[in-house]
Amino acid sequence: MLCDFHATGAGYVASPVDGSLCDIVSIATMMADPVLPLRRLGVSVEYAAWAKAQGCQHLWGGAWIDEKPSGLRNTIPAEVSEAVISGMARLGMRIMCVGSTCGGEDLRRLLAVARDTGLSVAIEPHPSTLDTLPSLPSGSTIESLRVAAVAIGARHGYRVGSAPANAQRTLLELGELPCGADEVIARELIAWGIPLTPLMASTRVQADLAALTSAPGLDEMSRIMPHHARILRLRAPGGMAMGQREAMKHLGMVPLSKCDREVLAKGWALLRSVLGLVASSTWLVGGSGAPGLGMHPRYALDEEQRIWRDCGIPENHIRRSFGDETASLLGIRRNA
């Protein structure tokens, strides 16, 4: 069988068992004979080394991760068999994360398996799969405010991509939306009545171009993204000699003009506005945003809470959203 977990890092929320590839390898090894490639794309060198030591084939991301730099959180793609999902549920997995690229009959099949096995679902919504949201199992969550905003915007005819490739491009699209779009997006999110994991730290760091295009900024990014392959390559001798434009392309971004930066700031302001609007009516779930980027979980968690405070979310709401009570009610097992 093929177990494919895309670009996950040292996750804080919604990880199989304790969230490391070590656990995934152990589970898969117990479940099947033989286990074919267990693929992990993008981050966490020590996890890859552990998999290799256990005799599992490890396929590094190569061109794939450079084409899709945003990553997905513990995404179980459609081609993973029902037996794998059922087996992992028996062995401790409590939540199945589904990326926005999984849709149609594949998604309906996965949701049926989740219901049969008692799993919750963390789903990145896509315009074509919004009709499945009412059928999500109890305890399920919406994954990423950024992705949800794109899905809702596309549904309402706004000029946004159907699936965001990275935060920079998405914020540029959101920054072009008309006045009042934040209220439209917020109303639909509230109407869904599904808990939301905003992952704002992930979006902010991905879109922070200043931090990516200077030597001090690169040192900071290396600290908060210690295992990210593209960051490590930039830190190699002569890595920054490629120049700012090439470095940003290497990180999946493009240089922005002053006008573009203003549009990007408007996109970020729209997301912050939506978060503030939904906070009083939607159950928010604290998530670090670390997995898709390889960020240090502690840094990402602190940054996520700071962003929430800046959006005017009350401190008691933040404590509840990031606390063990919220995690246990969702059936989520947090990492140490």
Give a summary of the structure in a few sentences:
By secondary structure, the chain is of the alpha/beta class. The protein has helices at residues 21-31, 45-53, 63-67, 82-90, 104-117, 145-155, 167-174, 181-192, 200-207, 209-212, 215-224, 229-235, 244-250, 258-278, 297-310, 315-321, 324-329; strands at 3-6, 38-41, 95-98, 120-123, 141-143, 196-197.
Molecular structure report:
The radius of gyration is 19 Å and the shape is globular. Helix 6 (145-155) packs across helix 7 and helix 11 (215-224) packs antiparallel against helix 12 (229-235). Strand 3, helix 5 (104-117) and strand 4 form a beta-alpha-beta unit. The longest helix has 21 residues, at 258-278. The protein has helices at 21-31, 45-53, 63-67, 82-90, 104-117, 145-155, 167-174, 181-192, 200-207, 209-212, 215-224, 229-235, 244-250, 258-278, 297-310, 315-321, 324-329; strands at 3-6, 38-41, 95-98, 120-123, 141-143, 196-197. It has 17 helices and six strands. It has a four-stranded parallel β-sheet. Strands 1-2 form a two-stranded parallel ribbon. The chain has one domain (3-204, 257-329). 49% of the residues lie in helices and 6% in strands. The chain is an alpha/beta fold and 336 residues long. The chain starts with a strand and ends in a 7-residue tail after the last helix. The model is unreliable at 1-22, 31-52, 56-79 and 332-336 (pLDDT under 50).
